[in-house]
Amino acid sequence: MNWKSTVEQWMPKPLIAPLKNLRQSIHLYQDSWAQAKRFNRSYSRIMPHERVRIETRVMFLSHQIEKGLSHHNFRYGFGKKVFNELPTLLTRLEQADLNFANNTVYKESLAALHEYMQRHLDAEKDISWQQLLFTADQWQRIMNAESNDGGSISIRKSDKLNNKDLSFAALSENRHSVREFADEPVFLDELNQAIQMSMRTPSVCNRQPTRVHVILDKEVIAEALHIQGGVNGYPAPPALLMITSDLRAFMTSYERNEGYTDGGLFGMSLLLSLESLGIGACPLNTMFTATAEKKTRKLLHLPDNEVPVMYIEVGHFLDETRTCRSTRFQGSDITSVLQ
């Protein structure tokens, strides 16, 4: 018999549960602090020098360009904040990766910049100020970049009509996030069908902590997305889903992050379910500041025991729209094998 069992055997039973709960609370604060310190050591700060951190910020800024390129009402000259940072980061990536010409992130960024510049040139817009930000070699690479490596692509409603008959591989390959939708309602029955299709998503010990809040009120949707801040400039979608995780489903301090894992799994199932039904969607992060979370909780009447995991914008496809190409790494790029 170990010492814990011995102590519990002689301890008054009414004290056992409170002491165990106290121990879990101590572990929670200790482990959360260790987690915060690790994040603080590792995340990609402004103007980094290490390759992966540089790639992170280049991907983020390139995606801002791609989102601008996907707007139905394209705004010439957008992206000044992006251009204040991206050229320097590209130079740093060239220095950090001797094989930068074949770097997926580098190529995606150049392809997005190529489409941006080409649209301006086709419209006879002045891009001299943008050109001055890049080195002569970078500018040449931008002008010669392969369009398939990044930028925007066209999504057609007619290509989604047979989604329910596609293999999983084809469905997954052809799914893209769209941020502009047809001007028609999304009905609750459609959403319920997709949610029900997602209920086979696995969760820790089958505790199923995920909750889905369906928002159909246009004013509430607009206010929620204004607080979220990631899709400013796009029309509000016909429907918005908030995926949360119910913290009451967890039993120890070590499970403090499990709700985000289970909620994320459910979110991907839901995105694919919507796609299979021929319905467009776009996931949006809910990594709020304390102020933004407080406002969101009040707006959506979220209970204190639930934590936001993600939003999903939902709407029917336009006959044709553009969206970010969002080039992916190869599986081999992210895989390590222990033998």
Structural account:
The chain is an alpha+beta fold and about 350 residues long. It is about 50% helix and about 10% strand. The chain contains 12 helices and 6 strands. The protein has helices at about 5-10, 15-40, 50-70, 80-95, 105-120, 130, 135-145, 170-175, 190-195, 220-230, 260-275, 290-300; strands at about 150-155, 210-215, 240-245, 280-285, 305-315, 320-325. The strands form 2 sheets. A 4-stranded antiparallel β-sheet has the order 2-3-5-4, with helices on both faces. Strands 1-6 form a two-stranded antiparallel ribbon. Helix 3 runs parallel beside helix 5 (about 105-120) and helix 10 (about 220-230) runs antiparallel to helix 12 (about 290-300). The longest helix is centred in the N-terminal third of the chain and has 30 residues, at about 15-40. The protein is globular. The two termini are about 35 Å apart. The mean pLDDT is about 95.
Outline of this structure?
The protein is an alpha+beta fold. The protein has helices spanning 3-10, 13-42, 51-70, 80-96, 104-122, 128-131, 136-143, 168-174, 188-197, 218-228, 258-276, 290-300, and strands at residues 152-156, 210-215, 239-246, 279-285, 306-316, 320-324. Helix 3 (51-70) runs antiparallel to helix 4 (80-96), helix 3 (51-70) packs parallel to helix 5 (104-122) and helix 5 crosses helix 7.
